[in-house]
């Protein structure tokens, strides 16, 4: 299931999916979240917080679900994930995108439920 939601304080649709997803899933202020990500990125020695390795380090304290490719079978899609996980808060690493899923609903600025899910981190504040 998908619901349109934009955590950006000015409602701007921009390429900020990492900040939007983390701010949404952790219920943090967007600008505060962006400042925190920039600070952590510098501390960990990354050039950007969109780097996949940065995300793995930043979210490493959260339980992680991995969805490996199975030969001959389609990968799990965002829509499948929402059905399999109707409760809880997750950050989903998808094909070329990051989004938030809360209680079986993907919250984002566009419907990305058709994208494959590679990893999900459970956010347990």
UniProtKB/TrEMBL annotation:
Domain of life: Bacteria
Organism: Mariniplasma anaerobium
Protein name per its UniProtKB record: Uncharacterized protein
């Amino acid at each position: 299931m998908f619901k349109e939601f934009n955590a950006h304080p000015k409602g701007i649709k921009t390429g900020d999916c990492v900040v939007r997803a983390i701010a949404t899933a952790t219920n943090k202020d967007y600008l505060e979240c962006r400042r925190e990500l920039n600070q952590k990125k510098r501390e960990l020695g990354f050039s950007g917080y969109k780097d996949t390795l940065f995300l793995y380090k930043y979210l490493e304290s959260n339980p992680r679900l991995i969805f490996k490719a199975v030969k001959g079978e389609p990968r799990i899609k965002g829509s499948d994930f929402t059905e399999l996980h109707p409760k809880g808060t997750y950050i989903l690493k998808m094909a070329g995108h990051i989004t938030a899923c809360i209680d079986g609903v993907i919250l984002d600025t566009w419907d990305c439920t058709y994208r494959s899910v590679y990893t999900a981190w459970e956010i347990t504040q």
